[in-house]
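Structure in, sequence out. Go:
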């Protein structure tokens, strides 16, 4: 299926980016920082004064370094980086922790070497070497993640290492090592080497993205961080707009009218991705909200037959589609009859269909097997089959309602086509009758984006034809755990619903808000099933209570010149992380080995 490669690549790339800046709690950061600072201070004094007094002095020295770091982190975060949205006090302290872990490793090796060769000067030099390594690390991190100007970047990079080296200098003077002129020169030479090596490293990494997308890798990474950490989507969407390609987007509308608009089902040919609030991830909720405000009725937005190749580039493109639909949805319904709901399955594929006038509404699922994004090829096939039966319009949806391992894409597609043909043949032969419609929406307060529930909540549209009551349950989420669909349908049957299908909108608003194997929770993965089903029952009963005779009209709107990310560009973006990592592996040794050699040569004169 279309989802198999591209969607997994998107989720993998998002998890790669997210994991790079996932940090422990502030309390854990402080605990580990205290441990490394005290460890470094203790080791430094004990090697010089192997006695009880040295132990006491070491503890004092280590705690002093810890308190100094806390002060420096506060000054850096609230002063130097106060205009940077990324670096809160916790993230600044976390960077100090990583720097101290690096520095502590040099202090430890230096201590071992000094004891082995009975030469404390070796420990001093390795401590200075660690100072240089920390400078390089801070320069690389701030250059690739921070939005501050060059002067503030240098200040944030240098403040902690230069401040923390002062206590060491005082300690060395105390034991008889004088601060020589070569050592003072080292504190000029070391920052120069650090700036040059970090500059070359970042520049070569930027070339990976510049050569393929015309965008520096660091700029793209910063834009992602802004979205992932503080929810700002504009910087990242600015890049996606540049990379996007224009396409005409079809939107299918099924509108039910009583004395006033009763319910509307809208299926745009747009994939609600790529993640969080970027692109069209929130389109199902945004479209639902706009339609309900405009028509004063219940609206739902099930998923169409397409994949990530039709992610919108930005919220601006979302609004273009919403504005077009709102401007065109004022038409009056005129058809008064509908067929009964038909569901056919061959053990692999299940197709549901109901005809309203001269228009068919179909849904596809492979449940209980995995049902992810389905190819547009299937939609084209079904449209052609519908035309053979004299139908004017065919609205096709992907129920997107089961996660259960891998499926054979070729076998599944053939099964879906075969069952669709049988379903259409059966439903067009049925007599149509007047019908009633009821609809309702509930917003489960217990379930959040982190749980897999989108802001659109749960919507149920009930259609009654004769004695048959059919429930269309649309949940704002990204797919559903294995077996939950069947539980829901069974529960609805117990309250008087004869037939139905359960849909998810495939909203990617729930993606990239947690870090797990998938990068999100499907509906029911961490939700209490009984509680979720109780909400669905509540919405269904509310919809059944407001059933009334309605008319219906189906139509298709085409929104011109909408920017989508496109499969090729999206795939390139997804591969960018791996390509950048491969480039980093190739250049890290030559660049930093050269820097280390230069520093080592200089330290021979200290």
């Amino acid at each position: 299926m279309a989802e198999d490669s591209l969607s997994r690549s998107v989720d993998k790339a998002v998890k790669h980016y997210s994991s790079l800046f996932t940090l422990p709690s502030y309390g854990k950061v402080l605990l580990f920082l205290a441990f490394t600072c005290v460890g470094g201070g203790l080791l430094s004094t004990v090697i010089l004064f192997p006695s009880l007094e040295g132990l006491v002095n070491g503890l004092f020295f280590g705690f002093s370094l810890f308190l100094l770091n806390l002060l420096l982190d506060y000054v850096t975060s609230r002063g130097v980086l106060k205009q940077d949205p990324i670096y809160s006090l916790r993230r600044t302290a976390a960077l100090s922790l990583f720097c101290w872990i690096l520095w502590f490793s040099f202090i430890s090796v230096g201590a071992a070497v000094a004891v082995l060769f009975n030469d404390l000067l070796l420990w001093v030099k390795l401590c200075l070497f660690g100072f240089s390594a920390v400078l390089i690390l801070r320069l690389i991190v701030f250059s690739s993640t921070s939005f501050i100007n060059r002067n503030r970047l240098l200040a944030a990079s240098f403040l902690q290492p230069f401040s923390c080296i002062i206590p060491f200098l005082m300690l060395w003077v105390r034991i008889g090592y004088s601060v020589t002129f070569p050592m003072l020169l080292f504190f000029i030479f070391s920052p120069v080497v650090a700036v040059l090596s970090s500059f070359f490293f970042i520049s070569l990494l930027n070339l990976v993205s510049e050569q393929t997308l015309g965008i520096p890798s660091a700029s793209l990474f910063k834009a992602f961080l802004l979205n992932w950490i503080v929810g700002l989507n504009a910087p990242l969407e600015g890049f996606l707009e540049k990379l996007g390609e224009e396409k005409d987007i079809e939107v299918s509308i099924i509108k039910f009218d009583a004395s006033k608009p009763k319910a509307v089902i809208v299926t745009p040919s747009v994939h609600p991705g790529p993640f969080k609030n970027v692109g069209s991830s929130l389109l199902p909720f945004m479209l639902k909200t706009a339609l309900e405000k405009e028509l004063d009725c219940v609206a739902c937005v099930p998923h169409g037959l397409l994949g990530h190749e039709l992610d919108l580039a930005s919220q601006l493109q979302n609004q273009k589609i919403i504005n077009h639909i709102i401007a065109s949805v004022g038409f009056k319904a005129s058809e008064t009859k509908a067929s009964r709901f038909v569901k056919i399955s061959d053990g692999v594929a299940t197709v549901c269909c109901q005809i309203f006038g001269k228009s068919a509404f179909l849904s596809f699922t492979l449940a209980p097997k995995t049902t992810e994004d389905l190819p547009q090829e299937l939609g084209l096939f079904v449209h052609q089959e519908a035309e053979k039966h004299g139908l004017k319009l065919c609205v096709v949806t992907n129920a997107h309602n089961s996660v259960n391992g891998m499926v054979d894409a070729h076998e599944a597609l053939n099964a879906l086509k075969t069952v669709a043909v049988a379903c259409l043949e059966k439903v067009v032969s049925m007599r149509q009758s007047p019908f009633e419609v009821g609809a309702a929406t509930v917003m489960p307060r217990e379930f959040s984006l982190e749980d897999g529930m989108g802001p659109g909540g749960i919507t149920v549209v009930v259609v009654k034809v004769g004695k048959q009551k059919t429930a269309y349950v649309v949940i704002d989420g990204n797919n559903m755990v294995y077996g939950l669909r069947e539980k829901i349908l069974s529960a609805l049957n117990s309250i008087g619903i004869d037939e139905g299908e359960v849909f998810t909108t495939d909203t990617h608003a729930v993606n990239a808000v947690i870090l797990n194997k998938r990068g999100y929770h499907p509906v029911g993965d961490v939700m209490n099933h009984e509680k979720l089903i109780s909400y669905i029952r509540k919405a269904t009963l509310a919809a059944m209570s407001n059933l009334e005779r309605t008319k219906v009209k189906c139509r298709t709107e085409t929104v011109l010149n909408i920017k989508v990310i496109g499969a090729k560009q999206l795939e390139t973006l997804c591969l960018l992380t791996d390509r950048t990592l491969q480039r980093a592996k190739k250049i890290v040794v030559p660049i930093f080995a050269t820097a280390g050699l230069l520093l080592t040569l200089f330290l021979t004169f200290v």
